[in-house]
Design goal:
The chain is 37% helix and 23% strand. The protein is of the alpha/beta class and 262 residues long. The chain folds into 2 domains: 148 residues, 3-Layer(aba) Sandwich (Rossmann fold); 106 residues, Dihydrodipicolinate Reductase, domain 2. The protein starts with a strand and ends with a helix.
Length: 262
Protein backbone atom coordinates (compact mmCIF):
# COMPACT_ATOMS: atom_id res chain seq x y z
CA UNK A 1 0.00 0.00 0.00
CA UNK A 2 1.30 3.46 -0.91
CA UNK A 3 1.50 6.12 1.80
CA UNK A 4 -0.72 9.15 1.22
CA UNK A 5 1.52 12.23 1.30
CA UNK A 6 0.56 15.91 1.47
CA UNK A 7 3.16 18.55 0.58
CA UNK A 8 3.02 21.87 2.45
CA UNK A 9 4.55 25.04 0.91
CA UNK A 10 4.40 23.28 -2.43
CA UNK A 11 5.16 26.53 -4.30
CA UNK A 12 8.69 26.69 -2.84
CA UNK A 13 11.95 25.42 -4.35
CA UNK A 14 11.92 22.41 -2.02
CA UNK A 15 8.13 22.01 -2.17
CA UNK A 16 8.31 21.51 -5.95
CA UNK A 17 11.11 18.96 -5.59
CA UNK A 18 9.17 17.07 -2.92
CA UNK A 19 6.11 16.96 -5.18
CA UNK A 20 8.19 15.49 -8.04
CA UNK A 21 9.84 13.01 -5.72
CA UNK A 22 6.51 11.95 -4.17
CA UNK A 23 5.13 11.29 -7.64
CA UNK A 24 8.15 9.14 -8.57
CA UNK A 25 8.50 7.27 -5.25
CA UNK A 26 6.96 3.78 -5.57
CA UNK A 27 5.86 3.81 -1.91
CA UNK A 28 4.24 7.26 -1.89
CA UNK A 29 1.04 8.70 -3.32
CA UNK A 30 0.64 12.49 -3.64
CA UNK A 31 -2.80 13.38 -2.26
CA UNK A 32 -2.46 17.14 -1.61
CA UNK A 33 -0.28 20.08 -2.66
CA UNK A 34 -0.72 23.03 -0.31
CA UNK A 35 -0.09 26.72 -1.04
CA UNK A 36 -0.81 29.90 0.85
CA UNK A 37 -4.23 31.52 0.20
CA UNK A 38 -4.20 33.74 -2.92
CA UNK A 39 -1.13 32.01 -4.38
CA UNK A 40 -1.05 32.05 -8.18
CA UNK A 41 -0.79 28.23 -8.27
CA UNK A 42 -4.11 27.73 -6.44
CA UNK A 43 -6.59 25.76 -8.50
CA UNK A 44 -3.95 24.71 -11.04
CA UNK A 45 -3.31 21.04 -11.67
CA UNK A 46 -0.08 19.48 -10.39
CA UNK A 47 1.69 18.20 -13.50
CA UNK A 48 1.27 14.45 -14.24
CA UNK A 49 -1.44 14.08 -11.54
CA UNK A 50 -5.13 14.68 -10.94
CA UNK A 51 -4.31 16.79 -7.85
CA UNK A 52 -5.04 20.54 -7.73
CA UNK A 53 -3.03 23.03 -5.65
CA UNK A 54 -5.11 23.92 -2.57
CA UNK A 55 -4.94 26.15 0.48
CA UNK A 56 -7.41 24.02 2.48
CA UNK A 57 -5.16 22.64 5.24
CA UNK A 58 -7.87 20.84 7.14
CA UNK A 59 -9.29 18.93 4.16
CA UNK A 60 -5.82 18.13 2.77
CA UNK A 61 -4.48 16.75 6.04
CA UNK A 62 -7.60 14.67 6.60
CA UNK A 63 -6.86 12.87 3.31
CA UNK A 64 -3.17 12.33 4.17
CA UNK A 65 -1.17 9.87 6.25
CA UNK A 66 1.80 12.25 6.51
CA UNK A 67 2.64 15.84 5.52
CA UNK A 68 6.06 17.09 4.37
CA UNK A 69 6.91 20.69 5.23
CA UNK A 70 9.72 22.86 3.81
CA UNK A 71 8.50 26.40 4.54
CA UNK A 72 9.42 29.01 7.15
CA UNK A 73 9.06 28.53 10.93
CA UNK A 74 5.77 30.49 10.98
CA UNK A 75 4.42 28.26 8.20
CA UNK A 76 5.41 25.10 10.09
CA UNK A 77 3.74 26.27 13.30
CA UNK A 78 0.56 27.11 11.43
CA UNK A 79 0.58 23.67 9.78
CA UNK A 80 1.16 22.06 13.16
CA UNK A 81 -2.08 23.49 14.59
CA UNK A 82 -4.11 21.64 11.94
CA UNK A 83 -1.93 18.50 12.07
CA UNK A 84 -2.68 18.23 15.79
CA UNK A 85 -6.42 18.33 15.08
CA UNK A 86 -6.24 15.78 12.23
CA UNK A 87 -3.53 13.67 14.00
CA UNK A 88 -1.30 13.82 10.91
CA UNK A 89 2.43 13.01 11.24
CA UNK A 90 4.67 15.90 10.10
CA UNK A 91 8.12 15.72 8.51
CA UNK A 92 9.69 19.14 9.13
CA UNK A 93 12.52 20.08 6.77
CA UNK A 94 12.17 23.79 7.56
CA UNK A 95 15.12 25.39 9.36
CA UNK A 96 15.67 28.50 11.48
CA UNK A 97 13.46 27.73 14.52
CA UNK A 98 14.00 29.65 17.75
CA UNK A 99 14.34 27.68 21.01
CA UNK A 100 10.77 28.64 21.85
CA UNK A 101 9.47 27.41 18.47
CA UNK A 102 11.40 24.15 18.88
CA UNK A 103 9.63 23.62 22.19
CA UNK A 104 6.27 23.95 20.43
CA UNK A 105 7.37 21.17 18.02
CA UNK A 106 8.56 18.98 20.90
CA UNK A 107 5.33 19.47 22.84
CA UNK A 108 3.27 18.58 19.74
CA UNK A 109 5.32 15.40 19.30
CA UNK A 110 3.71 14.02 22.47
CA UNK A 111 0.51 13.74 20.43
CA UNK A 112 1.68 13.12 16.83
CA UNK A 113 4.88 11.78 15.18
CA UNK A 114 7.21 14.64 14.19
CA UNK A 115 10.53 14.19 12.38
CA UNK A 116 12.70 17.31 12.47
CA UNK A 117 15.51 17.26 9.92
CA UNK A 118 17.60 20.36 9.21
CA UNK A 119 19.01 18.25 6.39
CA UNK A 120 17.15 15.33 4.82
CA UNK A 121 19.94 14.15 2.49
CA UNK A 122 21.31 10.69 3.18
CA UNK A 123 24.81 12.03 2.34
CA UNK A 124 24.74 14.76 4.98
CA UNK A 125 23.49 12.32 7.59
CA UNK A 126 26.38 9.97 6.75
CA UNK A 127 28.72 12.98 7.00
CA UNK A 128 27.50 13.54 10.58
CA UNK A 129 28.80 10.07 11.49
CA UNK A 130 32.19 10.87 9.88
CA UNK A 131 32.38 14.16 11.80
CA UNK A 132 31.65 12.37 15.04
CA UNK A 133 34.51 9.97 14.36
CA UNK A 134 36.93 12.77 13.45
CA UNK A 135 35.92 14.80 16.52
CA UNK A 136 36.64 11.86 18.82
CA UNK A 137 40.13 11.48 17.33
CA UNK A 138 41.09 15.12 16.71
CA UNK A 139 38.58 17.34 18.44
CA UNK A 140 40.65 18.27 21.49
CA UNK A 141 43.80 18.96 19.42
CA UNK A 142 42.44 20.71 16.35
CA UNK A 143 41.01 24.11 15.52
CA UNK A 144 37.54 23.28 14.16
CA UNK A 145 35.82 25.50 11.61
CA UNK A 146 32.46 24.82 9.95
CA UNK A 147 32.09 26.69 6.67
CA UNK A 148 28.69 26.68 5.00
CA UNK A 149 27.62 28.23 1.69
CA UNK A 150 24.08 28.73 0.41
CA UNK A 151 22.18 30.78 -2.16
CA UNK A 152 21.55 34.48 -1.55
CA UNK A 153 17.82 33.95 -0.78
CA UNK A 154 18.40 31.89 2.37
CA UNK A 155 17.11 33.68 5.47
CA UNK A 156 18.60 31.79 8.43
CA UNK A 157 22.32 31.62 9.32
CA UNK A 158 24.27 29.60 10.18
CA UNK A 159 22.33 26.88 8.38
CA UNK A 160 20.43 24.25 10.34
CA UNK A 161 22.83 21.67 8.90
CA UNK A 162 25.92 23.59 10.09
CA UNK A 163 24.40 23.78 13.58
CA UNK A 164 23.59 20.04 13.54
CA UNK A 165 27.20 19.33 12.44
CA UNK A 166 28.49 21.46 15.33
CA UNK A 167 26.23 19.62 17.76
CA UNK A 168 27.45 16.23 16.48
CA UNK A 169 31.09 17.32 16.90
CA UNK A 170 30.50 18.72 20.40
CA UNK A 171 28.55 15.62 21.47
CA UNK A 172 31.44 13.39 20.34
CA UNK A 173 33.79 15.52 22.49
CA UNK A 174 31.40 15.38 25.49
CA UNK A 175 30.96 19.13 25.24
CA UNK A 176 28.02 21.49 24.81
CA UNK A 177 27.95 23.09 21.34
CA UNK A 178 26.55 26.38 22.66
CA UNK A 179 29.64 26.75 24.90
CA UNK A 180 32.07 26.23 21.98
CA UNK A 181 30.47 27.93 18.96
CA UNK A 182 31.81 31.27 17.76
CA UNK A 183 30.05 33.07 14.94
CA UNK A 184 31.84 36.42 14.82
CA UNK A 185 35.48 35.74 15.76
CA UNK A 186 36.71 37.51 12.60
CA UNK A 187 35.33 40.80 13.86
CA UNK A 188 36.58 40.53 17.45
CA UNK A 189 40.20 41.46 16.63
CA UNK A 190 41.55 38.66 18.80
CA UNK A 191 43.37 35.41 18.14
CA UNK A 192 41.53 32.10 18.12
CA UNK A 193 40.88 30.46 21.49
CA UNK A 194 41.54 26.76 22.06
CA UNK A 195 38.47 24.55 21.69
CA UNK A 196 36.30 27.02 19.80
CA UNK A 197 34.11 25.77 16.95
CA UNK A 198 34.11 28.60 14.40
CA UNK A 199 31.08 29.07 12.15
CA UNK A 200 31.63 30.75 8.77
CA UNK A 201 28.73 31.66 6.50
CA UNK A 202 28.68 32.45 2.77
CA UNK A 203 25.48 33.61 1.03
CA UNK A 204 25.99 34.02 -2.70
CA UNK A 205 24.47 33.25 -6.07
CA UNK A 206 22.39 30.09 -6.31
CA UNK A 207 24.61 27.70 -4.26
CA UNK A 208 22.31 24.84 -3.26
CA UNK A 209 24.14 23.86 -0.06
CA UNK A 210 27.79 23.17 0.77
CA UNK A 211 29.27 22.31 4.16
CA UNK A 212 32.97 21.90 4.86
CA UNK A 213 34.46 21.15 8.28
CA UNK A 214 38.15 21.78 8.90
CA UNK A 215 40.07 20.04 11.68
CA UNK A 216 43.25 22.14 11.56
CA UNK A 217 46.36 20.90 13.34
CA UNK A 218 49.63 22.84 13.30
CA UNK A 219 51.15 20.98 10.35
CA UNK A 220 48.18 19.44 8.56
CA UNK A 221 44.48 19.95 7.93
CA UNK A 222 41.75 17.33 7.71
CA UNK A 223 38.71 18.48 5.77
CA UNK A 224 35.32 16.75 5.55
CA UNK A 225 32.97 18.16 2.95
CA UNK A 226 29.47 17.64 1.56
CA UNK A 227 28.16 19.40 -1.55
CA UNK A 228 24.57 19.09 -2.70
CA UNK A 229 24.60 18.83 -6.51
CA UNK A 230 20.87 19.57 -6.69
CA UNK A 231 17.81 19.65 -4.40
CA UNK A 232 16.83 16.11 -5.30
CA UNK A 233 19.09 14.71 -2.56
CA UNK A 234 16.98 16.53 0.07
CA UNK A 235 13.66 15.56 -1.53
CA UNK A 236 14.57 11.87 -1.91
CA UNK A 237 15.50 11.55 1.77
CA UNK A 238 12.47 13.58 2.88
CA UNK A 239 9.91 11.45 1.04
CA UNK A 240 11.49 8.13 2.12
CA UNK A 241 11.60 9.32 5.74
CA UNK A 242 8.00 10.60 5.50
CA UNK A 243 6.77 7.18 4.34
CA UNK A 244 8.51 5.66 7.38
CA UNK A 245 7.18 8.36 9.75
CA UNK A 246 3.56 7.68 8.71
CA UNK A 247 3.62 4.36 10.58
CA UNK A 248 5.45 5.52 13.73
CA UNK A 249 3.80 6.26 17.08
CA UNK A 250 3.73 9.84 18.43
CA UNK A 251 7.25 11.03 19.24
CA UNK A 252 10.10 13.33 18.27
CA UNK A 253 12.29 11.79 15.57
CA UNK A 254 15.42 12.68 13.59
CA UNK A 255 16.84 11.34 10.30
CA UNK A 256 19.12 9.12 12.41
CA UNK A 257 16.04 7.29 13.77
CA UNK A 258 14.82 6.72 10.21
CA UNK A 259 18.24 5.58 8.93
CA UNK A 260 18.74 3.26 11.94
CA UNK A 261 15.43 1.55 11.12
CA UNK A 262 16.62 0.51 7.63
N1 LIG B 1 15.97 19.94 5.54
C1 LIG B 1 16.63 20.10 4.39
O1 LIG B 1 17.32 19.18 3.91
C2 LIG B 1 16.50 21.39 3.65
C3 LIG B 1 17.00 21.54 2.34
C4 LIG B 1 16.75 22.74 1.66
C5 LIG B 1 16.05 23.76 2.29
N2 LIG B 1 15.61 23.58 3.59
C6 LIG B 1 14.80 24.58 4.28
O2 LIG B 1 13.47 24.49 3.75
C7 LIG B 1 12.85 25.76 3.85
C8 LIG B 1 12.31 26.17 2.47
O3 LIG B 1 13.40 26.30 1.57
P1 LIG B 1 13.17 26.66 0.04
O4 LIG B 1 14.52 26.74 -0.57
O5 LIG B 1 12.16 25.75 -0.56
O6 LIG B 1 12.54 28.14 0.18
P2 LIG B 1 11.55 28.91 -0.80
O7 LIG B 1 11.77 28.52 -2.21
O8 LIG B 1 11.67 30.35 -0.42
O9 LIG B 1 10.10 28.39 -0.38
C9 LIG B 1 9.49 28.73 0.83
C10 LIG B 1 8.09 28.18 0.84
O10 LIG B 1 7.50 28.42 2.11
C11 LIG B 1 6.26 29.09 1.91
N3 LIG B 1 5.99 29.94 3.07
C12 LIG B 1 6.72 30.99 3.50
N4 LIG B 1 6.17 31.51 4.61
C13 LIG B 1 5.06 30.76 4.87
C14 LIG B 1 4.06 30.82 5.87
N5 LIG B 1 4.09 31.73 6.85
N6 LIG B 1 3.07 29.90 5.82
C15 LIG B 1 3.03 28.96 4.86
N7 LIG B 1 3.96 28.86 3.87
C16 LIG B 1 4.96 29.76 3.89
C17 LIG B 1 6.44 29.88 0.63
O11 LIG B 1 5.18 30.22 0.10
P3 LIG B 1 4.99 31.41 -0.98
O12 LIG B 1 5.35 30.84 -2.31
O13 LIG B 1 3.55 31.75 -0.85
O14 LIG B 1 5.91 32.53 -0.55
C18 LIG B 1 7.17 28.83 -0.21
O15 LIG B 1 6.28 27.86 -0.68
C19 LIG B 1 13.91 26.71 4.43
O16 LIG B 1 13.73 26.77 5.84
C20 LIG B 1 15.22 26.02 4.10
O17 LIG B 1 16.27 26.37 4.97
C21 LIG B 1 15.83 22.42 4.26
Amino acid sequence: MKTKVAVNASSGKMGQQVINQTISNANADLVAALCRPNHRLLGRQVRYTDIYYSSNLDESLQQSEVVVDFSLPEGTLQLLKTALITSTPVLVGTTGFSAEQLNVLKTASKKIPILLAPNTSIGVNSTLALLSMAAKMLGKKADIEIIESHHKHKLDAPSGTAIRMGEAIAEAMNENFDDLKVTDSRFDKRSRKKGEIGMSVIRAGEIIGEHKVLFALDNEIISIEHKAQNRLCFAEGAVSAAVWLASQPAGFYTMQDFLASN
